[in-house]
User: Fold SAM-dependent methyltransferase from Mycobacterium celatum.
Amino acid sequence: MEMSDDPIETTRALLNRPASVRHGFLDVLGESTVSPAPTLAQRAMNSPFVATVYERLWRPVSFYLASGITTRAEQRRAAEALHLSQAHRLLDVACGPGNFTGELARRLPAGGLAVGFDISEPMLTRAVLDNSGPGTCYVRGDACTLPFDDETFDAVCCFGALYLMPDPFRVAHEMVRVLRPGGRLAILTSHAPETPGIRYALAAGASIIGLRMFERDTFVDLFTTAGLIDVEQHTQRALQFVTAAKPSG
Assistant:
């Protein structure tokens, strides 16, 4: 496919359903669609106030406490794990205000495209304001039915969001579906520690605000069963970083 100089039009050509442009991002859901937010955490992700402070304060502090890893270190690790120097199309699922999308876009080769995908209008509005560039585009939609054909992206990621989603396993399978052969996938999500006391305390606190704590083998098994290879997992405190690749042939 010939690349357009306009990232919005380039991304529109990748979509398999119509989309309108709203607040600088493509929207496949439409104005009448309300983002589902049954839990406290999900309601927060749809708050304009949270969208404003999330990138600068909330996420860096909370994720450092949960893993001991800084945002910059996370971004470097993500770029290396996804082999972005060899990728041309990246999909960042549940991108929020685009703090990873914009940074990872700069690590793609010249002419590369990073698509940030989220269901929250306030988050995407913030992403367009703070993390746009010639190699980025943002799309509003439902990650349970990603609006892209099979094998569209060279790299697919989801950092710090699967534990918020009503159906995280369906989203994970969608991520595998849109990944091209030879492409790389990476997720950062929750991890239930094996120490009983810590495990119980984290699970109890998470359930109050609507977060899910995943077992150690959950996504390793899911990706292996889906046919991915080179599955690797690194755990830090209450988080796990899992990477995998889709076979080339």
In short: Residues 7-28+40-246 form a domain with the Rossmann fold fold (CATH 3.40.50.150). The longest strand covers residues 179-190.
